[in-house]
Amino acid sequence: MLEIKHKKTHAVLVTVDCDSLEGRKMAGARLRGADLAGANLNGADLVSSDLREADLQNANLSGALLNGAYLDGANLVRADLTGADLTDAKLDHAELQDANLHKANLRYAQLRDAILCNADLSGADLSMADLRADLHDAKLMRADLRAADLSGANLRGADLQEANLTGAKLNSAQLSGANTFGMIDVQGHKVTIKRPSPLERRSKTHKMARPWWKFWAEA
User: Fold this and answer.
1) pLDDT of amino acid 210
2) N or C: which end of the chain has fewer CB within 10 A?
3) 80: which DSSP letter?
4) Spatial contact of 37 and 21, defined as CB atoms under 8 Å apart
5) What is the Cα–Cα distance from 204 to 155, expressed in whole angstroms?
6) How many CB atoms lie within 10 A of CB 35?
7) What whole-number distance in Å separates Cα of residue 116 and Cα of residue 43?
8) What does the alpha-carbon distance between residue 164 and residue 196 come to, in Å, rounded to a whole number?
């Protein structure tokens, strides 16, 4: 028997007749503000569940079914969401720093003002998603971002190698330091200009800045 309690009041929200939440069917569960930090929810069915403001940091949600779930304001820092189905999930203002969303399905998901700094979104399906979020240093290699809304998004230092941004909205997005080599841009064209590494930039600067006495000696 497991009791899922509220993170602040400690009131019992749900009582589950089992010893583990792994693979558990809890579709539509009312778990707003639940304390599920570090919980093993691998493969759990949480379709359309209310997990707003829940504490899910370090939780194992790999392969979980979270399509249509409400996760607004949830703490998912360092959570494992590998291969999870988050289609049409609501994640506005959610904290997803360092979360693993490798190959997760976030199609049509709402992530406005979510924090995804350093999150692994490589190979994820983010098509048509609202990504007006903080994606600083996020890993977006080979991600599907077709028709996603990235207006005003912070993509500084993000790795967008081979990501597909066809039809995406990028107005006012911050892309300084982002790696866009091999990326498909909003027009459907492949970016083939490789950004020089810091070492290459330093080397180039060093070659250009010749000492003044070199010029004097050659005169």
Assistant:
1) 57
2) C
3) B
4) no
5) 26
6) 17
7) 22
8) 21
Helix H segments across 68-122? Answer: none
Query: Which pLDDT score, from 0 to 100, does residue 206 have?
Result: 55
- Backbone φ and ψ for 35, nearest 5 degrees, come out as -95, 100
Residue with tokens 């359309």: 48
- CA distance linking residue 20 with residue 178, whole number of Å: 41
Q: Which helix (H) or strand (E) holds 12?
A: strand 12-16
24, 46 in Cβ contact below 8 A? no
Decide: residue 208, CB within 10 A, 0-12 exposed, 13-18 middle, 19+ buried.
Answer: exposed
| CA 142 to centroid of chain Cα atoms | 13
Tell me the sheet residues that pair with 25: 45
Residue where the block lists tokens 């579709």: 27
Q: What is the mean pLDDT of each run of 10 residues along the chain (219 residues)?
A: 95 92 96 98 98 98 98 98 98 98 98 98 98 98 98 98 98 96 95 65 55 49
Whole-number pLDDT of residue 18: 85
Q: Burial letters for 100-131: b for 16+ Cβ neighbours within 10 Å, e otherwise?
A: bbbbbbbbbbbbbebbbbbbbbbbbbbbbbbb
Question: pTM, whole model, 2 decimals?
Answer: 0.87
- For 15, the token pair is 């009582």
Q: Which two tokens stand for residue 200?
A: 């290459």
